[in-house]
Amino acid sequence: xxxxxxxxxxxxxxxxxxxxxxxxxxxxxxxxxxxxxxxxxxxxxxxxxxxxxxxxxxxxxxxxxxxxxxxxxxxxxxxxxxxxxxxxxxxxxxxxxxxxxxxxxxxxxxxxxxxxxxxxxxxxxxxxxxxxxxxxxxxxxxxxxxxxxxxxxxxxxxxxxxxxxxxxxxxxxxxxxxxxxxxxxxxxxxxxxxxxxxxxxxxxxxxxxxxxxxxxxxxxxxxxxxxxxxxxxxxxxxxxxxxxxxxxxxxxxxxxxxxxxxxxxxxxxxxxxxxxxxxxxxxxxxxxxxxxxxxxxxxxxxxxxxxxxxxxxxxxxxxxxxxxxxxxxxxxxxxxxxxxxxxxxxxxxxxxxxxxxxxxxxxxxxxxxxxxxxxxxxxxxxxxxxxxxxxxxxxxxxxxxxxxxxxxxxxxxxx
Length: 415
Prior knowledge:
There is one protein chain. The protein is mostly helical and 415 residues long. The chain contains 21 helices and no strands. It has helices at 5-11, 13-43, 48-76, 79-96, 102-130, 133-144, 146-160, 162-165, 167-172, 179-187, 192-200, 213-233, 236-242, 248-276, 278-298, 302-316, 323-328, 336-347, 352-364, 366-386, 406-414. It is globular, with a radius of gyration of 21 Å. Residues 402-415 have low confidence and may be disordered.
């Protein structure tokens, strides 16, 4: 029986491609908005704080999508809600290009946020339940790196197409990922685990969640991590244009370095977490984030900005390579779907970060507001992770190098 993860992924390339590209194209439609903030603010005659209300509202809509599409995926299978979520966010991304006022743009981006929230959870479930357990850890890391692929694509379009076509066409391009739904419909089978559970289901499934310190730690961690994430990237293009005085073309190298570093860093962080333990790696990464931030946002020298972009992607943002297993081991198999769904809801709170940055910008300036938000988020995440809660873990962690341990195998088999 084949157990090599790379070989197993080669034989399951369609589902891996669908899940990764779905998340990447979802990210493209999301992040292109952040590149357009300065132009949109001028077009609709509003300030940065008013524009920052849009990602805040999208965060609330994402919560609705996460819960709604997640419930639909449990009832009707993973494929149909995944395809609907993709078509949904593509539709409202395209319609955003027709916005005639700030209010209309706000409404359309809220509707976009519902589909944006639904895609990740349904794609993750379909991927994890379709692959052999030996391939799930690596596949999870590759899928998570899809976000930076989408961010890199939006940066490239902003550099090459935006100066020629303008902001409306950046949203119109967001319709193209709808073609992925056709590929999923034709080439991807339904989750075998979901089909099996439907056949074997007897009586009512367990409803509820066991709350303990490890669970609360996981929720606190995702809040801090997502505040950090949004603090790092949401207003970064605006920062480079307005504070550093870069042109749209000059923004691209910095976003590219950040994205490529994150794509490399996430699998590396996952491997380090297995080798040395997730908690120690997260603590080191968050401690390093504080000095790295000074290069990322507080030093105007181009060499410092470039090094900061690389390190913030390679280290700070790469904690997401550890997130899936760090959260999953806090819940039993029977409660994991609900637990991760609630955790994803807490993720949406990170959308508050851009708005807070905009609020503090009026007093302290964008440079100081971004720097402070990133550092405070890193310190909060460090504190949340520092508490020892291993006796409450549903699946104990046993760092054993790169060899597979029984606990990690059990975890991957039940995710």
